[in-house]
Amino acid sequence: MSALLRWPLLAFLGLPVLALLLTSTPGELAAAWRHPLAGPAVVLSLRTSLVSLALIVATGLPVAWWLARARGPWARAVETLVELPVVIPPAVVGVALLQAYGRQGLLGDGLARLGVQLPFTEAAVVVAQVMVAAPFFVQSATAGLRGVDPDLLLVARTLGASPTRAFWRVALPAARPAVLAGAALAWARALGEFGATLLFAGNLSGRTQTMPLAIFSALEVDLGLARALALLLGGLAFAVLLGLRVLPALRRAP
After folding, report:
1. Within-domain flag for 210
2. I need a labelling partner for 142 at 20 to 30 A (CA). Which of 11, 36, 51, 59 fits?
3. Among the residues of the chain, which ranges form H helices?
4. Please, are residues 194 and 146 in contact by the beta-carbon 8 Å criterion?
């Protein structure tokens, strides 16, 4: 296949990134850091995305391990359910969360009796992030755990290890690269979540306004500020991607 055929897509993908870099000045970046919109949004984004990541890993590992070993229609049905948030629009996810946990939702009355109100709170930001980011972790972790040699687990069980101990001491270390990659992708997706957060948590400055929502708000009043905030968020995402590429190479280096 001709080498020329790959350049149109590469140019299409790279041009917006290049434009963002070329049109943002150091002065705008410095002003963005000092702007009252930026600080709370950065802190909130980092805090909620890290909490979301912890919840995703804690609840996603058991699901990934089960999917890696299960066979049959039930396993495929569960796998489809896990992957569903990847293919449906985030706005649909936001409406679905409102219908599930909002005041008029399926669990609204029960949560109200417990004194819990999820929509338009920081907890709602976490819920929205977990909903859209969990599939990325589960998919990657499942693929990694499926690649674990069954003979290794059999030997561990033969030596007296319980199924739980065999998972932690044999399966998880063998699948570590895929698990870490999935965690990094899930964190990046949570950090950049916009649509579901806007509908379920709102855009309340200092309370539920994450970095993507701050960019949305800045775009309405100051294009330069929006560019600078977008560059900051893009830099965080690039750092995650760079880590995915560099860290495994460093681990393999003698």
Report:
1. yes
2. 51
3. 7-23, 26-34, 38-69, 73-87, 90-101, 108-113, 122-146, 150-158, 163-166, 172-174, 176-191, 195-200, 211-219, 223-252
4. no
Cα→Cα distances 183→117, 150, 215, Å: 28, 24, 25
On the question of pLDDT at 211 being above 80, the answer is yes
Residue 135's domain comprises: 47-252
Tokens of 216: 């949305």
Whole-number Å distance between alpha carbons of 35 and 27: 12
Give the type of residue at 131.
Answer: M
Decide: 98 and 105 in contact? Cβ < 8 Å. Answer: yes
How high is the pLDDT of residue 254? Answer: 52
Q: Cα–Cα distance between 121 and 56 in angstroms, integer?
A: 19
Question: How many structural domains is the chain composed of?
Answer: 1
Calculate mean pLDDT across residues 202-210.
91
* Rg of the chain in Å (alpha carbons): 21
In a domain, 230, yes or no: yes
Q: How many angstroms separate the Cα of 89 from the Cα of each of 64, 135, 159, 192, 222?
A: 23, 14, 48, 14, 28
Q: Domain of 100: which CATH number? A: 1.10.3720.10
Write down the pLDDT at residue 1.
61
Residue 32 covered by a domain: no
Residue that is written with structure tokens 């804690």 in the block: 58
- Cβ atoms 146, 68 nearer than 8 A: yes
Residue 125 near residue 210, CB atoms below 8 Å: yes
The tokens describing 133, both together, are 């980011």
Kindly report, residue by residue over 180-195, the tens digit of the pLDDT: 989 989 999 999 999 9
94: in domain: yes
